Structures are given as structure tokens and as C-alpha cells.
Amino acid sequence: MKKFLLILSLLFSCNHNTEECFCTEEYNPVCAGNNQYSNPCKAQCDGFENSEITILLTQEEINTGMLVEVNCSI
Predict the structure, then answer these.
(1) For residue 26, with 0-12 CB atoms within 10 Å meaning exposed, 13-18 middle and 19 or more buried, which class applies?
(2) Domain-located, residue 71
(3) Which of 41, 43, 47, 57 lies at 20 to 30 Å from 20 by C-alpha?
């Protein structure tokens, strides 16, 4: 599953040099700045670098569908 998500993120990675940014609707929530995004691509589209993005779910949490509420402003 991780390899599939990695391939998807590479195929649909955002191009910051264009006005348009296309992302999948994959649910892999992240924090960037004080905001929560549904996936890393959407955070990158808002101008955040990979080093500024924190992935919120472990692979086990993704597999089970469990998510605890997260406050990205901390």
C-alpha cells in the first residue's frame, strides 16, 4: 500500500511553477503551517515544502480508518 501511495504521489505531484495544481482525492491528512490538509499534495499546492509537512497517520491508522482529532496550530 505504501508503494502504491508513493507512486500515486509521484504521478500526481504538484508543480509549484504553474497556477494550476492537480491533486488526487487520496485521504492522507497532514499538517502544514497551522492548517490541516487532506493530503501532502494539497499542502504543497499552498506552497509548503516537504520538510514543512507533517503526516498525521501511520500506515496502521490508514488501514483501520481510525483518526484522532488533531490540532495543527500547536
Answers:
(1) middle
(2) no
(3) 57
